[in-house]
Amino acid sequence: MYFAEETPPIAYHSLEEMDATLDRLHRECQPGHPICVNVVVPGYWVTIGLGADPTFVLVSVEPCDGEWYVSAGDEAAHGWVDFYGCGNYTRFERRSLVPLSLARQAVREFAEHQERSRLIRWQDWAGRPA
Fold first, then answer.
1. What is the DSSP annotation of 47-106?
2. pTM score > 0.85 for this model?
3. Spatial separation of the C-alpha atoms in residues 44 and 25, rounded to whole Å
């Protein structure tokens, strides 16, 4: 699990350890300064925003060179939200934001089954429903 360039990756050996680490990182976020956390699952990187609710989930297929799927929230939402981590900031459209509880469940399901959760809608890299 990666969340900051200057910090070594955090290893986890169970879903419970992963959840506990995500809980801790979420609690440690500075107000108004949400972060991106990359959870490495063999063949994928699952990125979640912590420190914000609603937030996003992004599933990137290795070698992470263009095939990805992002959560789809309120299509009418406008604007962007900045998330920090891994050496820079990344902007996500507000229409990609979903409730944090659903985002966390989606990360857990993906880590366990390597399938995108059916609890949320997804869009692919071209903005098409996935």
1. EEEES-SSB-EEEEETTTSS-EEEEE--TT--SEEEEEETTEEEEEEGGG-B-HHHHHHH
2. yes
3. 21
